[in-house]
Amino acid sequence: MRRRTSPSGFDTAGIRPWNAGIDGLAFGGDYNPEQWPDDVRLEDIELMREAGVNIVSLAIFAWATVEPREGEFDWAWLDTTMDRLHAAGIRVALATATAAAPPWLTRKHPEILPQRSDGTVLHQGSRQTYSIHHPVFRDYAVGMAERVARRYADHPALALWHVDNEIGCHNPRDWSPAAADAFRDWLRERYGDLDDLNEAWGTAFWSQRYGSFDDVLPPRDTTAFGNPTQLLDFDRFNSDALLDYYRDLRDTLREITPHVPTTTNLMAGSHKEMDYFSWADDLDVVANDNYTLAADPDRHLLLSLSADLSRGIAGGDPWILMEHSTSAVNWQSRNRAKQPGEMLRNSLAHVARGSDAVMFFQWRASKAGAEKYHSALVPHAGTDSDLWRDVVALGGAVKALGEVRGSRVVARTALVLDWPAWWACEQDVHPTQVQYPDQVLAWYKALWRLGVTVDVVPPSRDLDGYDLVVVPTLYLVSDADAARVRAAAERGATVLITYFSGIVDENDHIRLGGYPGAYRDLLGVRTEEFFPLQEGESVRVSGASLPGGGLTADLWTEKSTVTDGVEVIAAYDDGPLPGGPAITRRTVPAGGDPGTVSAAAAPVSTAGTAAAAGPGGSAGPGVPAGSAGSAAARSSTGSAWYVATRLSDEGVAHIARRVADEAGVLPSAAVPEGVEVVRRVADGVEFVFAINHTDAEVTVDAGRPAPLSDTDAALAAVVGTDLLTGEDVTSPLTIPAGGVRVVRVPV
Ligand code: GLA
Ligand code: GLA
């Protein structure tokens, strides 16, 4: 990559906290005053005070307003806005103003426009209509960031730098000539030697061998299937290049204001193209944007996943919810307004999972432009509206939760997620089309419904401290990352891996000798061939420890054998492989050598006998293996479960409960359907967030976590204070229909 400025040599210890000068949690959103006349801007400040706004993101799309013609600057309105915000005690996350280039720039330099894979040029007229790879654009962008930084370096309202906006939202992949040059530079740096590239890309296949780096193209539209590793490297390159663009601007800002923290707003949970785990170290604080999907009845679960992923990117630290919506968005096919209470639930669900901020797009609903139907804190209807009254109430709630700031969510369950594995998994010409997020979400949802709090972590994260490690469909994995999962099992954790995992290495080369290569020994399973199911086809799987009629599954089956001692929890009743193992469990000795699975491995056990015979096997239906003790209490014997098919939701729920119970993982509370309980922990105190997503009042034993199997656990009548109402409460806790309670409990 071209690096314009050196990221090294900065003393990051001197960077002040992003929320210095804010009391408690941050509350606010994107502020775009350039869309309004001055009388409205003056009213904005009054209304921000009324709602309790203490931070805004400013100047995100301000470039063309600040510099309407090249070299002609109008800063006055921005100076005034900064001063007014400061006078009102409102802090500013100030943007580099680079998220949309002014029209004069692309007219003068059409070479900076991005291109699609078929060579179509994308033109000015919306936003992010530039190639971040083009040196001319980079110069202009860095220049703009520098001007903003110099002008406001010492402004007392400046809290945080907001680099560009949702980097890669609209231009995550670019096939322009500038992108092609940058791709070749990136490949030279990654491989050094052309032979290594040829080896990694498997170019002996289809006469693709390269004699020069100059012959390499980004994977443009071509006649047949593209080279898989070229496609994968292009994904890696683009993610790295977008990060490099961030670094360029960040370094520019940092040189001028070494003490001011820098971030950019991620889109974790909804965007495939950026490997945010690899971005984390460059963000002084992780900031995320999240929008719920109006048509999805489970939209609050997807929200939770995004929040847990944000916390995972932040390495467990508190983070910033930088954007969500007060009500409808404008970009779904049917943009329904939120239900009463939904904004509050959404906002506090993010806080429950580690956000120290509640921020929105945007402050005031636009009357013109492409987002005029997008909700805001001040709606089109004005302040005589339910939405405004709800916004003011939310501001009060956020204020009341001030002491939550800085507390942390503690989880004993890890769900492993990886962007390169996602990219590789969803490529063409595979045994069938496997949608990676579906699998991640299926297991996440099952754990959510059990009340189990989950850390979403990359495969490179240390798994010490987790009793349960769930690895859904991790198609691509390095040896080192596969070893981490194995080490977790050898340390005593319960590990669960699902189909089409561990198949290829980092270069997307098959791990030979039988699937699932990287995990074959750990699981004690060896697969010879895949038998994906046809559209609409499903199978039954059954086993002695499964509920009566067994479970259903679809999409995927595989022909496997298991090693001695591996328990077949379920076998196929029907489908292409009747009698074959579908769900298995291997007891993993502490730190032991698991041996290897050879082609002459033990024949497939039948479900009935295996379930009775396997070590650590179930004592019978409904009695989960290993339910007797917590991970801490158990010996260091762990287990490795394999789910070789796509179970229905009911099947995933059953297995998730079993593995959570076996691992000794405690739910944050015994949660009724549709209720979410999450705990944030600080010194001597716990904040219990209880969110009722149903339309009926519920009661929750929020007193203390108890094992899933411990259905008779006495309700601990813990006294705490509801921070939202100030009332003292006891457990069981009543949560009104659609309501939220946040209870401070001394521990
Ligand atoms: C993103 C952008 C905002 C706005 C919202 C609309 O989050 O950052 O500028 O377009 O989407 O939902
Ligand atoms: C054709 C081609 C082969 C191979 C097969 C795959 O027959 O000639 O090179 O691609 O299809 O089915």
TrEMBL record:
All copies of domain Beta-galactosidase C-terminal, residue ranges: 674-744
InterPro entries attached to this UniProt entry: Beta_galactosidase_C (IPR013739), Beta_galactosidase_Trimer (IPR013738), Class_I_gatase-like (IPR029062), GH (IPR017853), Glyco_hydro_42 (IPR003476), Glyco_hydro_42_N (IPR013529), Glyco_hydro_b (IPR013780)
Residues annotated as domain Beta-galactosidase trimerisation: 411-590
Domain Glycoside hydrolase family 42 N-terminal: start-end pairs: 30-400
Annotated segments matching region Disordered: 608-631
Biased composition regions of type Low complexity, renumbered to the chain: 621-631
Primary enzyme class: hydrolase
Keywords, sorted A to Z: Glycosidase, Hydrolase
Catalysed transformations (reactions): Hydrolysis of terminal non-reducing beta-D-galactose residues in beta-D-galactosides
Enzyme Commission code(s) on record: 3.2.1.23
Domain of life, source organism: Bacteria
Family recorded in the similarity comment: Belongs to the glycosyl hydrolase 42 family.
Name this protein carries in UniProt: beta-galactosidase
